[in-house]
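Justification of computing resources. Each target in the renewal requires a structure prediction run like the one illustrated here; the chain below, 64 residues long, is used simply to show the kind of job we budget for.
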Amino acid sequence: MKYVFSHFTEDERQRIGVHTCPGGDHDLTHSADVDCGELLPMLRTLDAGNFYIQMANEKNLRRH
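Resulting structure tokens:
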């Protein structure tokens, strides 16, 4: 995953944002299906400038 953004310059990578959401799309994995303890280390491997993690409407906030 680290190399996904490798063709962007450092300045461009700082403007790239990655977000997670607990659902809404069909046929995709959502943050509600993945433990945050597994998700956060993976996100840290991405060379992006911003991360947005929607947790307000997660069903099991204690899990996170």
